[in-house]
C-alpha cells in the first residue's frame, strides 16, 4: 500500500516528495511547490491515523488546509486533492514571479482599523488572514504593505512586521493563480461529504458541492476568515477540536477565541 501511494505521489508531482520530506534540506522544503504538497500529505496522513471509524461532525482548514479538510470529509479523493494542491502551488509561484508582493503580521489592533488603513493606503493592500482577535495578516505590493505597516504602528498596533514570504497571497495579486486553479477545480471530481466544511471565503457551513467549488475558486484572492470561521463553528455547537497538520498553531488560535474548547491530540 505504501509503495502504491508513493507511486501515485511521484506520478502527480513528478518527483519523490517523501524522500525530499525526510532527507531534503531546509531550503528544499521552503520551495512552495514542495512545501504545499508536503503539508497536505502530512495533514492527510494524520487524519488517516485517526482510523476508519473516525467521522468528523464538521471540518475546516486555514488556506492550504482547506484541501486536506476536503479530503478528510470525503469531498475530494486523496489523489485529486494532491493534484489540486500541486497545481495550486505552481500557479501561486508563477503569480509571485509575475508580480512582486509581500505580507505582514499585524498584532494588537481592531479589525476595522486594519481594514480602514489598508483601504486608504496607495497601491494594493488588503486584510488577507483574520487569524484570531487582534491578529491579522495584510497582503499586497511591497511598497503598499510597507507603508501600511507604518500607518498601523502610528494607529497603535503592537507590532506590524513584514513576513518572510514570497508573494502577496490572498490578495488581488493572485488573480492569475486563481484563474489557473479555477480551471483545475472544474476538471476535478467532487463528491458528497460526510459532514459540512466551513470555508475560508464564507466562514459558514457549506454542504452543496457547487458552492464548495465556487468558494474554493475564490480562495486565493479572498481573505481567510479564520477568526469568523472559528466563532461560527463554536456557535454551531463545536465543543472539541482535533488539529491534523504540522504544529499546533490552530489549536492556539481556537483557545484565543474560546477557553472552553477541548483540544484532542492525535496519537500516531
Please name the defining characteristics of this protein.
268 residues; alpha/beta; Malonyl-Coenzyme A Acyl Carrier Protein, domain 2; Alpha-Beta Plaits; 4-stranded antiparallel beta sheet; 3-stranded mixed beta sheet; 12 helices; 13% strand; globular
Principal-axes geometry comes out as: globular
Please work out how many helical segments DSSP would assign.
12
Major β-sheet annotation? 4 strands, antiparallel
CATH homologous group name of the largest domain: Malonyl-Coenzyme A Acyl Carrier Protein, domain 2
Specify the structural class.
Answer: alpha/beta
Which value, in Å, is the CA radius of gyration?
18 Å
Low-confidence parts, pLDDT < 50 over ≥5 residues?
Answer: none
Q: How many domains comprise the coordinates? A: 2
Task: Assign the CATH class of the largest domain.
Answer: Alpha Beta
Q: Helices and strands, in N-to-C order?
A: HHHHEHHEHEEHEHEEHHEHE
Mean pLDDT: 91
Strand order of the largest sheet: 3-4-2-5
Amino acid at each position: 500500500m505504501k509503495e502504491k501511494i508513493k507511486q501515485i505521489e511521484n506520478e502527480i508531482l513528478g518527483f519523490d516528495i517523501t524522500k525530499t520530506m525526510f532527507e531534503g534540506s531546509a531550503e528544499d522544503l521552503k520551495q512552495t511547490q514542495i512545501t504545499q504538497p508536503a503539508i497536505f500529505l502530512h495533514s492527510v496522513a494524520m487524519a488517516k491515523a485517526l482510523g476508519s471509524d473516525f467521522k468528523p461532525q464538521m471540518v475546516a482548514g486555514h488556506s492550504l488546509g482547506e484541501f486536506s479538510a476536503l479530503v478528510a470529509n470525503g469531498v475530494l479523493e486523496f489523489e485529486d486533492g494532491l493534484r489540486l494542491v500541486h497545481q495550486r502551488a505552481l500557479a501561486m509561484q508563477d503569480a509571485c514571479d509575475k508580480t512582486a508582493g509581500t505580507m505582514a503580521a499585524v498584532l494588537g489592533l481592531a479589525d476595522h482599523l486594519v481594514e480602514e488603513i489598508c483601504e486608504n493606503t496607495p497601491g494594493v493592500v488588503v486584510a488577507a488572514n483574520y487569524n484570531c482577535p487582534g491578529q491579522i495578516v495584510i497582503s499586497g505590493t511591497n511598497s503598499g504593505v510597507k507603508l501600511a505597516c507604518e500607518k498601523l504602528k502610528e494607529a497603535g498596533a503592537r507590532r506590524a512586521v513584514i513576513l518572510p514570504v514570497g508573494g502577496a497571497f490572498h490578495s488581488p495579486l493572485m488573480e492569475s493563480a486563481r484563474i489557473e486553479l479555477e480551471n483545475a477545480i472544474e476538471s476535478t471530481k467532487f463528491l458528497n461529504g460526510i459532514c459540512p466544511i466551513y470555508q475560508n471565503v464564507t466562514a459558514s457551513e457549506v454542504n452543496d458541492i457547487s458552492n464548495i467549488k465556487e468558494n474554493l475558486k475564490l480562495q486565493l484572492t479572498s481573505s481567510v476568515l479564520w477568526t469568523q470561521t472559528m466563532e461560527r463553528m463554536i456557535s454551531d455547537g463545536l465543543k472539541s477540536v482535533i488539529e491534523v497538520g504540522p504544529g499546533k498553531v490552530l489549536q492556539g488560535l481556537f483557545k484565543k477565541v474560546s477557553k472552553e474548547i477541548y483540544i484532542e491530540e492525535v496519537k500516531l
